[in-house]
Design goal:
single chain; alpha/beta; TIM Barrel; eight-stranded parallel barrel; 10 helices; 8 strands; globular
Amino acid sequence: MKLLVSPKDVEEAKAVIRGNADIVDVKNPKEGSLGANFPWVIRAIKELVEKERGNGMEMSAAIGDFDYKPGTASLAALGAASAGADYIKIGLLKIKTRQEAIDLLTGVVKAVKGFDPTKKVVSAFYSDYKRINSISPFEIAEIGTEVDIDVAMVDTGIKDGRSTLEFLSEEELKTFVSESKALGLDTALAGALTFDDLPVIKEINPDILGVRGMVCGGDRNAQVRAELVTELRRKVSE
């Protein structure tokens, strides 16, 4: 299981790198669950990550929690790709139907893969989809057959401390993982997860574990702490 940690700036990225995460995930928590950061921040963090390439470290960047704006999403995705992200993450926050999701992701994939076919597109669904009136993560089987995404993710849309594991059961998350893997997709799990959740997370067995609050001492608005990244990296590897 790869560990993805989300810094909001260069100083936090240095802590993520010192903690030896697998993926440095640039986001802007002030703009939401998958809030987009500035291109110059992505580029600056890319320079740090490039020095760690020999250790296999990669970088991702969130481009926002989107409504149905395929053109805007495609342009944002191209911006993140050109700024250096290896993974481009888009949230389907206000997407209501399967066709809207397909349209949005088709544009994003075309923009990213047209720029560099080695880069990967991450489609983020939300475990609390019912309370935010968003598309269900269990539409992945149909959506994934229509668009060439690389990673299917589950996160929380509202960051109020409630966990993905409060909204979806272990069995439901295992179903999401298995249906995604059947399509040849990698999977990612995030959303206010804690160290105490690690045994369940390992049972669900996503390819990627995504965190922020867990390595900020429990408060996603605090600073990422390198020692907590190191501890989590060790526990994930056990």
